[in-house]
Amino acid sequence: MKIAPRKREQIFPLPVALISTVSNNGVLNVAPWSNITPILRPLEEVVMASWIKRDTLDNIRDTGEFVINIPPVEMSEKVMISSKNFPADVDEFKEVGLSPRRSSMIAPPGVEGCLAWAECSFIEEIAMDRFSLIIGKVVNLEVDDRFFNDNGEMDYENAKPMSCILGAKGLEFTYPANSGKKASYSEMMLK
User: Ranges for the Flavin reductase like domain (predicted)?
Assistant: First the structure.
């Protein structure tokens, strides 16, 4: 079966992150993001795609800072509320019912209750006709100790980091499950 262009996004399980920013006027902003990924390993830079008209994008351009918050699947209701298009002068943390978490290295707060908080500084914007790619540098990364071991590995089955699958009538929130297969990095190398 061939998939029509308007349905192609349905083949990708997408991560869900909350991006928190603050405006030049001190207004807190939070928005869900799925088009985001680390740029290779280790997690030093990230890239995220944004529609051209977003308060989050304006705040990143203006202040040069943002936090990538990794929510558990239990936050799905608040993620949906945060997806609404609030006016730029509205404190979205208050509207959504989220508590700010003080950041260590940058001004925008993280979101309390998340699994991890990557504080980022803006590096570069690659502007296209309909969207921009934003590249950021992770300047500080903190995690909830309840869901990470001493090596920094997430207990994802208990943490349940949020992801989603897009469908014809909307999206469905999901989280990773263990397939039972483990592999070492050396298995990827030619011998």
Answer: 12-150
In whole angstroms, give the CA distance from residue 21 to residue 23. Answer: 7
Round to the nearest angstrom and report the end-to-end CA distance of the chain: 37
Homologous superfamily, domain 5-174 = Electron Transport, Fmn-binding Protein; Chain A (2.30.110.10)
The pair of structure tokens assigned to 184 is: 């070492």
* DSSP E strand boundaries for the chain: 14-15, 17-22, 28-33, 36-38, 45-51, 65-70, 100-101, 110-111, 116-127, 131-143, 163-167, 170-174
Question: H helices within 71-155, ranges in order?
Answer: 76-82, 92-96
Please write the tens of the pLDDT for every residue from 104-151: 999 999 999 999 999 999 999 999 999 999 999 999 999 999 999 999
Q: Which residues pair with 167 in a beta bridge?
A: 170
